[in-house]
Every structure is written in structure tokens, then in C-alpha cells.
Amino acid sequence: MSPSSPSLGWLGIVRLGLVQTALGAIVVLTTSTINRVMAVELALPAMLPGALVAMHHAVQLLRPRLGHGSDVGGRRTPWIIGGMAVLALGGVGAALATAWMTTAFLPGLLLAIASFFAIGVGVGAAGTALLTLLAKQVMPQRRGAAATIVWMMMIVGFIVTAATAGHFLDPFTPLRLVLVTGTVSVIAFVVTVLAVHGVERVRPLDDGQSPARAEAASFRVALAEVWADTKARRFTVFVFISMLAYSAQDLILEPFAGNLFGYTPGESTKLAGVQNGGVLLGMLLVALAAGRGIRGRHFGSLAAWTVGGCIASAIALLGLVLAGVIGTDWPLRANVFALGMANGAFAVAAIGSMMALAGDGPVAREGIRMGLWGAAQAIAFAAGGFTGALLSDVLRSVSGSMAAGYTSVFALEAVMFICAAALAARIGNVRIALRTTAGDATEAGHTAAAPRAAALAAGR
Fold this sequence. Notes:
mainly alpha
């Protein structure tokens, strides 16, 4: 095996997944729990925590610059650890700021702004470096499964932290908020340091890229080189459109179920659980079918699953359009589950494909490529929910129909997913077709649709 050959085994992938778990643990406290405390316990205008959360997304425009920094240094581990340190400090600072607002609002607000800025920088640095390290060190046939493992472990971080922190936060006091957030942040940082220790065994710059040349290239020059690559440019547009389509229904799906189908708050919350269950199943399906294979056989490449997931998401959204027309006779739960499943398949397949594209091109710029795509995702995700809700209100006012307001947004999302699928199918000559030899998959070359999601993944 050459020095630069991918060498990360399953244990290494799980260890890096722990970093995502730690990252998710801090993020869920700051963007969800602290958000709620500001709006409910402190009775502040909802736009204030909303603006702080939006700012943490906007700050991630720095991702390309942070990725370039890891390219120049040649190692990703310091950026992961450093990013998590900044994120942990931001999390503690956000809790302190919230507590401070109860006695001195303006100083607390200033600290909150600085803390959420730090959270955005920390997530951007650690997340970009982590994805780049995975792209460099995971074998092609394991990328789908690796993406599934890492993102499912992030979701586990959300769930475990929310349940555990929720238990210790009651009865609520500002001091409890600071203690719980501080404890979670310290644990997350320690877990990160232990998880990445010794994982990065080779320097990416040893693979033929001259360190002197990499250090001499300015950020603007490096970014221009990446943007000049047609595949990278199309991929960036794909990420933005697909994530905008993915997130536009975030704030309107539950109101849609409540207003048109008579769902109670509890029932609409359960509907979100149904959707997330579909996301997890879609992720697992791709990992099994296109990654390690089912009974030694592979069913489609990651590229095909990405395009297919976009198309399936469009079909599921058109189903929601029909739901608005037909009404309560429509199987809404099944439709939402199908949407989640399609989203999950598209997201994890796209992330696996993205790992292949990260190092593609005449100059090794894995970090800046990951950063560029991460920034596009962050912008789209920050804008998607707000844009979807705004369009729904405007269209409902113009048409005079509540159903038309919701279904018009769903239809627009479907169109965006179709456009994303078309873009994905045109991305260069990158084929991630996987073969099986003696029960073990090997890479057959690179191809035509290398998108990503995210996020969120997808389910986030």
C-alpha cells in the first residue's frame, strides 16, 4: 500500500464517528435547548435566538478558508481538535450569556453574539477537516457505509444529549444550564481528542503534492483553482440547490399536518419522528446496497443512489401536493416516511460520492473543496426554512387558500430536486461503480453524479 493509500478500517471510521457525536452533542444544546430557554424561560423575542442560530450558519462561509488552512498544514487532526475546542468554548459561552441575560441583558447579548460566532467557526473547522480526513483515508468501497455510520452517530449525539441534558436541566435554573452545557462541552472535547489520536497516520501532502507549492499558494489562488474546475463548480451549485430543496419544508410540514389534516401538536411532533425514521432507513439501505452489498451483490453505485434519491424526494414532495388537494383521505404518514427515506438515501449517497470528488482535480485541494461545499450547504440550510415559510405565507395570502400556500412550496421543492438530479448527472466523469471480487468490493473508477447533502443530514 502506498503512503497515500486510503487505510482507515471500520474501527477508525467509528472513532471518527465519535467526533460527529461530540459535535452534535454541543450543537443540539446551543441551537435547540438554549434557543428554547431564551424564547420561553427568558421570554425574549423568538427572532433573537433565531438570529443567533442563523449567524452560526452564516459564519460557516469561512469553511473554504478553514479547509485551505488544513491543506497548507498537511494534517487534519489539529484542525479537528482546534475546531472542537473553539466549539466547546462557544457552547459554554452561550450558556453563560443566557444566564447573564437574566441580570444584565446587554452584556449577556454581546457575549451570546461572540459565542455563536465561535460555534460557527468551531463547527466549520472541525466538520470540514473531519470530512476531508474521511475522504483521504476511507477506501472507495466503504464510503457509503462510512457516511452512514458517521451521520447516524451524529444523530445519536443529538438524541442522547437531548435526553440526558433534559433530565439534569429540571428543575430549570440558569446555573444548571451553565453546568450541564459545560459538562457536555468538556466531555465532547475529551472524546474528540481520544477519538482522533493516532488515526491520521500519513501526511496528505506526502502524496506527490509539493509542500512548498501548497504553502506558497494564497487562499484566493487556491479558491480560483478549485472554482475553475467544472466538476467542483457544478457540485457547489448542486449542493446549494439540493439543500435548499431539502430544508424548505422544515418549518411548514408540521403546520401543514395541523391545519389541513387536523393533527394535534403531539401528533405532528410524532410525524417528524416518522420522517426521521425514514431518513435512517434510507441511509442504511444505501450503506447495505451500494456499500458492502447485500449477500455479496451491489445494487447501484453511490452516484446512481444520489440521483435516484433526488428523484424519489421530488416524487414524495409531489405526493404532499396531492395530499393538499385530496385531504384527509391521503396516507400522509406513509408519504412523509417515504420523503424521509428518499432524503436519507440521497444524503448519505451524496456524502459518500463527495468523498471521491474531494481529491479529484489537477491540484490536491481536498480541504478547500470540502469547505466550499460545506459553505454552500450552510447558506442553503440557513435560508431554506425561512424561505419556505415566507413563500407559504405569501402564496397563501395571494391565493386566498391555505392549502395552495403549502402545496406551492412542496411543488417548488420537487422542481428543485429534479434540477439537482440533472446537475448531479452532469458532474464530470466521476464514476463510483463498485465491483465484488471474492466477496470484497473494489473501485471500478469514478463517474457522473457526485453530489452531497448533508447534512443533514440529512436528517441532520
